[in-house]
Amino acid sequence: MTRNPEICDRPHPGVGCFVVKDGRFLMGRRRGAHGAGTWSVPGGWIERGESPESAAMREVWEETGMRATDAHAVGATTTLHAEGLCSLTVWVVSRWESGEPICMEPDKFVEQRWCALEEGLPAPLFDVWADLLVSPTYARLHEVLAASPYA
């Protein structure tokens, strides 16, 4: 994986959503060809005409069966994936509203768990996280997740 945004001429827009409940956020372990065995927050591609926040809420529902609210973008990162695909991930934070997480797409996710940044993240992480962890967006995520109503 290369972390050089200049080589990404036309990145595909996607989202990663931190759904926060009781100071923790949901992560899922991926299954399938793209990122199998790695961990990430709910997310996926932004569809035509969709805002990052709307895409995040849709992906949370599709992947977990949960409802989230108060979504807002906190930053973005660009990743060149091993298979040559380039993505622009908009990182979104939202509050859990209702439902308990279930693997709604068992072909894409094996398990889900609530995590906290201060407890350490599960490993290995999905490839977009390599770019997130070294970006200013990660520091911003720390600030947002430590503040009310997320703390």
Structure overview:
The chain has 151 residues and is α+β, with helices and mostly antiparallel strands. It has one domain: Nucleoside Triphosphate Pyrophosphohydrolase (Alpha-Beta Complex), CATH 3.90.79.10. 20% of the residues lie in helices and 37% in strands. The chain has three helices and seven strands. It has helices at 52-64, 128-133, 136-146; strands at residues 12-21, 24-30, 39-40, 43-45, 67-80, 86-98, 109-115. Strands 1, 2, 3, 4, 5, 6 and 7 form a seven-stranded mixed beta sheet that branches. Strand 1 and strand 2 form a beta hairpin. The chain is globular and about 40 Å long. The termini are far apart. The mean pLDDT is 91.
How far apart, in Å, are the first and last alpha carbons?
33 Å
Share of residues in strands: 35-45%
> How does the helix and strand content classify structurally?
alpha+beta
CATH topology: Nucleoside Triphosphate Pyrophosphohydrolase
What would the average pLDDT be, to the nearest integer?
Answer: 91
Name the CATH class.
Answer: Alpha Beta
**Strand segment tally:** 7
Order of helices and strands: EEEEHEEEHH
What level of helicity do the residues show? 10-25%
Task: Please compute the radius of gyration using only Cα atoms.
Answer: 14 Å
Q: Could you say how many structural domains there are in total?
A: 1
Query: In CATH, what is the homologous superfamily?
Result: Nucleoside Triphosphate Pyrophosphohydrolase
Largest sheet: 7 strands, mixed
Low-pLDDT runs of 5+ residues are none
